[in-house]
Amino acid sequence: MNKNLKILMSGGGTGGHIFPAIAIAQEIQKRFPEAEFLFIGAEGKMEMEKVPQAGFKIVGLNIAGFDRGNLMKNVNLPIKLISSLVKARKTIKEFKPDFAIGTGGFASGPALYMAAQLDVPIFVQEQNSLPGKTNTFLARKAKAIFTAYPNMGHFFPKTKTFFLGNPIRKNIITDLIDKDSAKEQLGLDTNKLTILSVGGSLGSRTLNNAWKENIDQLAAKDFQLIWQTGKTDYSDLKDNQSIINHQSKIMLREFIADMALAYSAADVIVSRAGAIAISELAMAQKAVLLVPFPFAAEDHQTKNAMTLVEKNAAKMVKDTEMSERFWTTLMEICEHENTRAEMSENLKFFAKPSATEEIVDEILASLNISF
Fold this sequence. Notes:
Elements: E1 6-10, H1 15-31, E2 36-42, H2 47-53, E3 57-61, H3 77-95, E4 99-102, H4 108-117, E5 122-126, H5 133-138, E6 144-147, E7 161-163, H6 170-174, H7 179-185, E8 194-198, H8 205-221, E9 224-228, H9 231-238, H10 241-245, E10 250-253, H11 259-265, E11 268-271, H12 275-284, E12 287-290, H13 300-309, E13 315-316, H14 322-334, H15 337-347, H16 355-366
Parallel strand pairs: 1-2, 1-4, 2-3, 4-5, 5-6, 6-7, 8-9, 8-11, 9-10, 11-12, 12-13
Helix pairs in contact: 1-16, 3-4, 7-11
Binding site for UDP-N-acetyl-alpha-D-glucosamine: 14-16, 128, 169, 201, 256, 301
InterPro entries: GlcNAc_MurG (IPR006009), Glyco_trans_28_C (IPR007235), GlycoTrans_28_N (IPR004276)
Function: Cell wall formation. Catalyzes the transfer of a GlcNAc subunit on undecaprenyl-pyrophosphoryl-MurNAc-pentapeptide (lipid intermediate I) to form undecaprenyl-pyrophosphoryl-MurNAc-(pentapeptide)GlcNAc (lipid intermediate II).
């Protein structure tokens, strides 16, 4: 096959779909600098901004997911689907890709379905332990499916399903440093147990409220907290008197730019259970308390968390249990060094530092493309 490859990429709606697609494209581009890429996304979704920022072209489809909360919003869905299929077909026929890669999300369905109809080899990358409907549908026509969790053969054809992990930000892999150095860089006490709380890029009100309720107990334990609040709650929290009273033990941040440094400094991490977050946590290999976002599609964050809990690689508290179980479960981790060590060791199973490279290796091998 000609090394001036043309690759179609599709995935979006959330960062969990977009960033793996970008990472895979960048890895192919590294090997084939002359390769040409075209992304297909959903109009109005974040991929229309993030993909061009990464230096790739993108075409938008007028597509949306099924709205379970407001059924009337689905009236135009058939029209949107048909128009998206037509536009995807036209785009693919004009671009003439050598192969297509989908990472899930609204636009990925029409794009990869039409690619397969036009005899373009397609590949699917699934980030979660409970696959999205788009990827489950596309898997039948895919040459290979790449998963971030083991034992996915009951969702996908076993013979073409590969447990290779999620592509994650390179600096999370390369920039992790020893704990004491990280604490020093952040101006923290190297002798104190440090908890990192992250609620995703937008923050988590559930986690923010839990810390507000337990701030005095945290101070009494003489622990340190790196607390990423997100934009919505930050202004209120920074003026909260209880937090101000204990500010020597709390590093309050709206957003954390250097996550590798924050991961490195932590003894314990409290986090939502998004697929990419879990893949990064597995690389950090710190004891983890997961609080899944309950409104994620098909409650997939709870499924992600349970996969780790079953291997004793994390503990989990549901949103509905926070008042009763958050602090006691956190203390089960913080007050028992052996528990933390065991969880950290078990997390190694999910750590896949070469995920992006191995996914690209498998794609190229299946197509007999060498570089």
